[in-house]
Amino acid sequence: VQLVESGGGLVQPGGSLRLSCAASGFTFSSSAMSWARQVPGKGLEWVSGIYSVGNTYYADTVKGRFTISRDNAKHTMYLQMNSLKPEDTAIYYCSKKGSPYWGQGTQVTVSS
Asked: Does residue 87 contact residue 37 with C-beta atoms inside 8 Å?
C-alpha cells in the first residue's frame, strides 16, 4: 500500500489549495478514504472522509469550506480547501479508512 499526498503550500488567509492523494497497492475504488491533519505537538484531527459510493463526511471545523472527492480511474482522492484560516495550518495526511496505512503528509501553512 502506498499513499502519496501533494498540493500543500503557503497561502494567505481566505485563499484556496487543493490537496491530492495518489493511492496504489490496493483496490482504491472499493475503499473508503480519509483526510486528517496534525499540528506538531498536538494530536491527529480527522478532517473528512469519503466512501466508495461517494458519501462524504466532514469535521465541523471544515464543513462548508472543504470538499472531498475522488477519481477512481486515477486512483486519486482530493481535498479542495477554500476560505482557509490560520488555524487550518497543519500537516495533512490521507489514509485508507480502517487501515494502518498513511501517507507521508503535505504541509499546509495559512499565513499573511
From this structure: no
Q: What is the full DSSP assignment across the chain? A: -EEEEE--EEE-TT--EEEEEEEESS-GGG--EEEEEE-TTS-EEEEEEE-TT--EEE-TTTTTTEEEEEEGGGTEEEEEE-S--GGG-EEEEEEETTSS-B---EEEEE--
3-class DSSP state for residue 34?
strand
Residue (of 88, 67, 79) closest to 14 by Cα position: 88
DSSP designation for 69: E
Among 16, 25, 30, 27, which residue's Cα sits nearest to residue 78?
A: 16
Grid coordinates representing 18?
Answer: 487543493
Residue 26: which of 103, 104, 96 has the closest Cα?
96
pLDDT tens-digit map of 15-70: 999 999 999 999 999 999 999 999 989 999 999 999 998 899 999 999 999 999 99
